[in-house]
Write a structure and sequence with these properties.
Layout: E1 11-15, H1 19-31, E2 34-39, E3 52-55, H2 61-70, E4 73-76, H3 98-104, H4 106-115, E5 123-126, H5 129-139, E6 143-147, E7 157-160, E8 173-177, E9 181-191, E10 197-199, E11 203-208, E12 211-217, H6 223-240, E13 244-253, E14 258-264, H7 274-277, H8 282-290, E15 303-310, H9 314-317, H10 319-323, E16 328-331, E17 342-350, H11 353-366
Parallel strand pairs: 1-2, 1-4, 2-3
Antiparallel strand pairs: 5-8, 6-7, 6-8, 9-10, 9-11, 9-13, 11-12, 12-15, 13-14, 15-17, 16-17
Helix pairs in contact: 1-8, 3-4
């Protein structure tokens, strides 16, 4: 047996204690692993289901060394962990720190994607107001100004509709062309420490104000488009030699051009529906990947719709528990229900696409999300 195969009841360390870490921990515990989480929040979602909580900042070298000493393998649940902070513990982090460095800077990310032979939207770097003025001339309007570092759920992004727009440049940024699209989709690719690659079915996504509102499978894209997206996904993972999970978000333009929007080196919000809709969840598959276990085939076992619950939706969302007993209702254990921050999700499954469409209309009405 390979020395890098890690079997239960070994201990898995998770850097980051949010909802993704929580669901990774729940999946790993079901498989018999022990969990230690490192997070600076006393009551983070993951620590509620972990065996031990190291209360520290993500770049605390002493805390990271403690995590290293206590664990057999370490993973991270979000991309804003300092890549340089992981140097001293990197031999127990199968993902390495390159995926973090790759995705933490939007310019680096787009450069690597383009250099690997794949397309992104047109963009130009911006550092100040004069740069923005020149970039708008080249890119045109409308356009999206995005900070190069940080940003989530639409944060760090500004929509520009006019060359005379007074938008302030908030540090190193990129200006992206705003293009007409027919669909946004995501592809979750898992590559194990043994080099095995599996891809989840393509997921259709709907965003409002740059925030993910709903995800569904199966995709409505045709087979030709589906195959092209899967080829791109596998090709990018092989190009960067990714280990663990890489989520790739795509734009499909009205001209049927496939563009990579952005990547995340981790399990993803859009993949939550895999818990109920697929034969293996993205969380179990990630645990299998970093522990060197054989990956499972990824098959859809049911049509599915997942809707996010944001802080402002929490009270209203509970109505669905009474009106739709067949739903799968997930809360993340967050102590504060902050506006525009994810606090849970709801997944529904059905053998009927018509049923899924009916659920979509129900949740649009219940959560006041329009069409």
């Amino acid at each position: 047996m390979s020395s890098n195969i890690i079997l239960p009841p070994a201990t898995i360390g998770i850097i980051g204690g949010g909802q993704l870490g929580r669901m990774l921990a729940m999946s790993a515990r079901q498989m018999g692993y022990q969990i230690i989480v490192l997070d600076p929040k006393v009551s983070c979602p993951t620590c509620q289901v972990a065996d031990q909580h190291i209360l520290a900042q993500f770049d605390d070298q002493e805390a990271l060394k403690k995590l290293y000493d206590l664990c057999d393998v370490i993973t991270y649940e979000f991309e804003n962990v300092s890549g340089t902070a992981l140097f001293e513990i990197i031999d127990k982090v199968p993902q390495g720190n390159f995926p973090l460095l790759f995705t933490q800077d939007r310019l680096t990310e787009k450069t690597i994607i383009n250099d690997s032979g794949f397309k992104t939207v047109r963009y130009q770097t911006v550092s100040n107001q004069e740069d923005l003025k020149n970039a708008l001339k080249n890119i045109g309007v409308p356009a999206l100004l995005k900070t190069r570092h940080g940003g989530y759920d639409g944060k760090g992004q500004q929509f520009i509709t006019s060359n005379a727009d007074s938008t302030e440049v908030m540090g190193p940024s990129i200006l992206e062309a705003f293009i007409p699209i027919q669909k946004e989709v995501s592809l979750i690719v898992t590559r194990s420490t043994q080099g095995e690659i599996k891809m989840f079915p393509i997921i259709d996504n709907v965003h409002q104000s740059q925030r993910l509102i709903e995800s569904s499978i199966p995709t409505t894209l045709n087979l030709e488009m589906t195959n092209k997206i899967q080829e791109i996904g596998k090709g990018l993972v092989e190009a960067i030699q990714m280990t663990g999970t890489l989520t790739i978000e795509f734009f499909v333009t009205k001209d049927n051009e496939i563009l990579i929007n952005e990547c995340a080196p981790r399990v993803h919000n859009s993949g939550h529906l895999t818990i109920e809709a697929c034969n293996v969840s993205q969380f179990e598959q990630h645990i299998r990947a970093i522990c060197g276990l054989p990956l499972k085939e990824t098959d859809i076992i049911s049509n599915s719709l997942m809707v996010n619950i944001y802080g402002q939706d929490f009270e209203t969302s509970k109505q669905a528990l009474m009106e739709k007993p067949e739903i799968h209702y997930h809360l993340y254990g967050k102590k504060e229900m902050k506006t525009n921050r994810k606090v849970g999700h709801i997944t529904v499954t059905s053998s009927s696409i018509e049923d899924i469409d009916s659920y979509r209309k129900y949740f649009q009405s219940l959560l006041n999300r329009g069409n």
